[in-house]
Every structure is written in C-alpha cells, then in structure tokens.
Amino acid sequence: MLELKNISKSYGTQLILDNISLQVKEAEMVSILGPSGSGKSTLLQIIGLLMKPDSGQIHLEGVSYQDLTEKDQATFRNQQLGFVFQFHNLLGEFTCEENIKFPLFIKGSALSASDEELFTKIIETLGIKDILKKLPSQISGGEQQRVAVARALINRPTLLLADEPTGNLDNKNAETLYALFVELKAVWQQRIIMVTHNDKLTSHSDQVIYLNSGRIE
Ligand SMILES: Nc1ncnc2c1ncn2[C@@H]1O[C@H](COP(=O)(O)OP(=O)(O)OP(=O)(O)O)[C@@H](O)[C@H]1O
C-alpha cells in the first residue's frame, strides 16, 4: 500500500498542497488531473522522494519516508521507484539498451540472469527490440518514450511515477503509450501514478484525482 496522510506543501506564502490524503493499492492505476499550477507535479515529486512536504506522512509498503536518511532515500528511489517524465531524459551518448540498463549499472553489481530475463521481457512487451543498438537521436519520440518506460521498469519498481508521459507525443503515440500502461497494470500488476492533462487517457484508471486549489476535488 502507498499511503499519503495530510500532505501539505507551500512555496513561500503560496499554499500548493493542502492536507492531501490518498491510498494506492498494488496494481492500481491512478491518474492525477487538474489545471496548470494546481500542484500535480509537486505531489508526484513528493511521492517520488524528490521533494519533502512541509507536513504529513507517506508510507510505501510499510516504509515511512520520514525514517529514511538521505542515503537511504537514494537507494529507495533507485530500488522501489520508477520515473517517466515528459522529456524522457535519455542519455544521448548511450545506446537505447545502455539507457535501459543504466539503473542496473548504478547498483554496481554485474547483471544477473534474472536481470537479463526481465530486460528481454520488457523490450518484447514494449516492442523496442529492433532499436536497442541505436542512439536516442536515431529513433522517434514515441520510441524514445518507450525506452524511458523500459528504463523505469528495469528495477521492478513498486511504484511507477509518470509526469505527463504523453505530453510531447502525438495522439497516436500517446494512446499507444497509455495502452502499454494499461497492459503493465493488467499483466504485471504494476502500480502506476500518472499526471496527465489528457482526460481521454484515464478510462482504465482505478482512481482519477482532480487537484484544484491544493485539494482533491
Ligand atoms: N520551485 C518552486 N518555487 C516556487 N514555486 C514553485 C516551484 N515549483 C512550482 N512552483 C509553483 O507551484 C505551483 C504548482 O506547480 P506544479 O508544477 O506542481 O503544478 P502542475 O499542476 O504540475 O502544473 P502544470 O500542469 O502546468 O505542469 C505553481 O504555481 C508553480 O508556479
């Protein structure tokens, strides 16, 4: 279970999140919608341990974020969380395969047989087998985004966090990526929290959350 209790966050005098509480079970897909500036990305960053709330508690699978030291937070992020952003942040000088395996290299140990097995399963599911040796600049935007999703999944994250993952894709690629998320949820029981502007991409969500004026509507 992911549990947020009374999360609040201000920037200066501007209250961005006002006592937000939320529970997300395993295999649930949650969409976060809301007007620009309503705090969607801020909430996602707090859940992703990239920003601290001013108050409130978060637990993921029994681990309290408050109890983690800075070093533990980095390890927790790398092992438990997967991130996909609108601008996928792929490393331009590395091939797609190297980009996908990057989180495994960070761990420092050699890739195990089960890492390789998962890698194969991921690239097959995402349909990106044929582009593995290419550089990110040599593939399309939709393909780049699928590589970013593969990289986010390679550590088997407890929670996949996606911030406007379809934001720079055309409609067709956006729908393909969303269909992939739906498949990851159905087949892999992947828990996903996605910020989106596109309310067409929420039909399979277990929870749709509208943020407005710092609160869930
Ligand atoms: N580092 C910061 N310092 C000060 N204010 C910030 C900072 N980051 C965000 N804000 C402000 O906090 C508010 C919420 O920002 P956030 O990016 O979470 O909104 P959002 O709902 O994701 O917006 P969008 O849909 O436009 O991406 C905005 O008014 C923004 O200007």
From TrEMBL:
Keywords noted in UniProt: ATP-binding, Nucleotide-binding, Translocase, Transport
Protein name (Swiss-Prot/TrEMBL): ABC transporter ATP-binding protein
Residue runs in coiled coils: none
InterPro entries the record matches: AAA+_ATPase (IPR003593), ABC_transporter-like_ATP-bd (IPR003439), ABC_transporter-like_CS (IPR017871), MacB-like_ATP-bd (IPR017911), P-loop_NTPase (IPR027417)
Domain ABC transporter residue range list: 2-217
KW Membrane (keyword) present: no
Entry GO MF terms: ATP binding
Signal peptide: none
Organism taxonomic ancestry: Bacteria, Pseudomonadati, Bacteroidota, Cytophagia, Cytophagales
Segments traversing the membrane: none
One Pfam family cited in the UniProt record for this chain: ABC_tran
Protein family membership: Belongs to the ABC transporter superfamily.
